[in-house]
Amino acid sequence: MIKKTGLATCVASALSLGLLQGAIAQESSDAAVLDTLTVVGDSKEAEQDSYKAKSSSAATKLDLTPRETPQSISTITRAQLDDFKLTSVNDALKNTTGISVEEVETDRTYFTARGFDITNFQYDGLGTPFVYGNLDGSIDTAPFERIEIVRGANGLMTGTGNPSATVNFVRKRPTLEPQARIDLTAGSWDLRRIDTDVSGALTESGNVRGRVVYANENKNSYLDRYSREKNVFHGVLEFDLDDSTLFSLGHTLQKTDSNSPMWGALPLVDSAGQPTHLSRSTSTSSDWAYWDNQENRTFAELSHRFDNGWEAKGVLTRVEKRGDSKLFYVYGTPNAQTGLGLAAYPSQYKDENKQWIADLYVSGPFALAGREHELMLGVNWSKSNLDDDSYYGRGIGTALPPMSEWDGNYPEPPFDASTAGSTFEDKQKSVYSAARFSLTDKLSLIAGARATKLDSDGDSYGVKKKRSDDDITPYAGLVYDINDLFSVYASYTEIFDPQSRLDASGNRLAPVEGTSYETGVKGELFDGRLNVSAAVFKTKQDNIAESAGFVNGRQAYSGANYLSEGYEFEVSGEVLPGLQAVAGYTYVDIQDENHGHGKTYVPKHLVRASATYRVPSLEQLKVGASVNWQDDIHRDVDIGGRLARVEQDAYAVVNLMASYDIDPHWTVSANLNNLTDEKYLTSLYWDQGYYAAPRNASMSVSWKY
């Protein structure tokens, strides 16, 4: 029997060595006939199927290829999103190298990479950090062309240097040529979904273009009583003010309404310290609970390209988020014999967050010492106002029946037992710059810094939150081209990450500080159709927020120090003619200040692999599979003053897909998820947890023009 670490090593070796050797051999063969051979193919179809990452400015605001970027970077392409029906950001990131999606509840999620929470999220390269460090609801992928992930600290663009990852959502933009697409999907648990996407010129000259995306999803669940509906609208207009100036105006609305969502999750151990082994359909929610989230995101963008190659761009973004919920939390430890010992905690919550974000930068080439280089200069300003109110229900502490007998039938109480809440404002100002210096024909240096000032004022649950922090975050990276195929790189950044989480007294934790290093090798093979990379990283952080239990129904945190070390491999693109793949392996070791295993709920080994293949003898047919594997994790839970261990064994989730192009306009497809019907916990991020979905399927019909 192969050990778990052995399995991961075998997978990594197959990805990094087998594909690499084949790629080099193929590259050499291609090079021998390059002067006389011309390949003719359906480039449009290849582009639509492609899993290869494109150039990105997410790391530096300089338009760099993955090979030119001195950090690990992955891309979830539109093809991968469509092939495997990754309609939520949660589903998309579950299929991304090095990322763990911590679904602690049905409608609240944390994301981690390299052992640390991901709090830096961007839209078209403009950062919008989560106020609470987590996602409420579910972000739909319908408005996005692709999703880019820069792993490691990205202090230059985000101002904080969080060493986990930066996720950049690249929005769909108008096209000059008319195009349209409609997808209809039906699946398990009454899943019904429609996606529409229409784009093209709105004037005869094409100087005004528009694009409209709409999606609706309605479904029940394998979880008792739970159901959810999503409505998504995305619209963008582009105006060519002249040959060099473009004005864009866009708006995205997403509304998620959930019935009987889970707030908190299942008790995982009983009073004897043994696993509860509940059914995976078990939910702690009541039948009257709901959680509705709505986000409106509007942006205006003006860009101008000068004759000397320089470009100026300004973006103004307005974000409004609203949440309204009545929730039912279950706490306590069930008795090992009777299952009794659980109690009720009903509450009502309303929250509203309004953000203004402004960003202005210029970039372009400049000459120095007889060589051409690139420079970027920018300023950023943002303001965020948050108001949230908690209305606690009567009957907190009421005894409940055993979970195995719980049917959600609990009288809805008046929510007037007590009230609390938060009202505070966060402001951020920053100036940033980066340059790419061409030191030699083979060696380039990317260096930059960001000066950031953050001010907070207000109160949260009776505690004043006035605070001011400022810091300069430097960034540096070297890239050396070994030959036409491969480059080596190294990068360094400092970490300065102000935190919104509160300690047991209700005070905001001091900022996280630290350093992050990364070095690796990247390659572009098969005439640029395949990217390969390998990286080694090391990060030291002080005062990371760690769960310290619940205080008066509120999650409290304390600061901890960690050292994170590891390595990862990834390949993405066309491995063989017709075979598109993205596959990655990550190993991460997290040590606490006592040199012990720091975060036991974070898997040390992760494998993420997805591939599709167009059958040569029947090119209308595309088949594919994805595999997400992680090794075992655990968490120690306090039950009456003693610790009980909750374990999740190593597991793999296998998904299958197939699609058939009936003609140039019509396609039918089918998806099968969790082929082996694996039963596993979605997360051990908290002391509670719940089980992921069992085997399920969907079918789709698509029309495109």
Automatic annotation (TrEMBL):
Keywords: Cell outer membrane, Ion transport, Iron, Iron transport, Membrane, Receptor, Signal, TonB box, Transmembrane, Transmembrane beta strand, Transport. It holds the Pfam family TonB_dep_Rec_b-barrel. The keyword Transmembrane applies. One of its GO terms (biological process) is siderophore transport. GO terms for molecular function: siderophore uptake transmembrane transporter activity; signaling receptor activity. It is a multi-pass membrane protein. Residues 275-675 form the TonB-dependent receptor-like beta-barrel domain. Coiled coil: none annotated. It is found in: Cell outer membrane. Residues 1-25 form the signal peptide. CDD domains: ligand_gated_channel (cd01347). InterPro entries: Beta-barrel_TonB (IPR000531), Beta-barrel_TonB_sf (IPR036942), Plug_dom (IPR012910), Plug_dom_sf (IPR037066), TonB-dep_rcpt-like (IPR039426), TonB_sidphr_rcpt (IPR010105). Residues 66-165 form the TonB-dependent receptor plug domain. One of its GO terms (cellular component) is cell outer membrane. Belongs to the TonB-dependent receptor family. This is Outer-membrane receptor for ferric coprogen and ferric-rhodotorulic acid. The lineage of its organism: Bacteria, Pseudomonadati, Pseudomonadota, Gammaproteobacteria, Pseudomonadales.
